[in-house]
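Hi L., both proteins are below.
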Amino acid sequence: MSAADAEEVEKANTAFYEAMEQGDFEGLSELWLDEDISCVHPGWPVLSGRGEVLRSYALIMANTEYIQFFLTDVKAAVAGDTAVVTCTENILSGGPAEESGELGPLVGQLVVATNVFRRTPEGWRIWSHHGSPVLTESDEEDDEDSPS
């Protein structure tokens, strides 16, 4: 793995999250491969194909007034024309408030993500994104109090 390849993949990964933060659907769309893509958002079923995957991002962008990603634990590995980036998404997001139309309360969430990229003539493109929620201790305590 060359350092230059890893750096380029990390730039593509950062561009993905920046497009989400900016609500740049067109920019986000350009970062994905044209075919055979898949995506798993936390708590969602597997989405396959460009239409399903991009529709999901359009839906998220339409219903999210504010979103910011603080990426930690970013690790990139490159093997030939394939790369994997793992990271923790520290997400701060909010939707519109019910009545005033202003931004509602912000919610924090931790998600671990695996982003798989393929090298193309246009640069690195996303092949698959998989996000999984990280359960906090308070989530686990709630589960213990629930009847089985």
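That was the first. Here is the second:
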Amino acid sequence: MSEADTTAQGAVAAEVQRRILDQIRDSALGPGQRLGGERDLATAFGVSRSSVRLALAALERTGAVRRVAGRGGGTFVGSPKVDRDLSRIVGVPQLLRRQGMQAGTRVLGTGLVVADTPTAAALGLPDGAHVLDIVRIRLADGTPISLEHARLPAALFPGLLELPLGGSLYELLEEHFDTRPHDAVEHIEVVTADEHEAAVLAVPRDAPLLSITRTTRNHDGTAFEHSHDLFRADRTSITVRSFAEVAMAAVTAG
């Protein structure tokens, strides 16, 4: 194929990509809906199958569609991504509601355990101190979005595990213990799903995940939460708001 032909095919593929995105945005195609096969799409758009293949590959890279191999597979409209705005400290249920999604939770386990070394260090606890251990799956519109593992000082929150844990942990802490987040430090890296994580998050083994380790403090500087969350990378985006040094200096001086 000549350079001119390649350029022309790229332009056609880009137009097909735009038209499919328009259908998704106009709700003509909903999340999880199966697109036609390459041959059907080529006929519908009046283009070659190779142009359709290029368009679908580009859409898959952005998460707009997902392709499933094998019998019964095909190309499906992707689900919307959850935007994690790191400039705000909010629980996942509130985060999802603000973005028009239905929040859900499955509690996998709770318990009273001795803090391991990293947790004790993050929470400023002495050796042998106990923490409340809460493991939950968060759902967005019924689909697993994250695996959440929270640890909190047991001495600060007696009776917490007896409360309903299907909603926002922050809302429970504020309502029952007059504790609310003031600031948090989060460390983010990309990891791959092991067999257990893949099963609970409904992704293939070795699928990319966003690993977020968070330590949260209240208004007097007491660390009250040390969490490790695994978010599906195909369903999550990260927003970070940054300020220039001059602006930060002015805020500090004020």
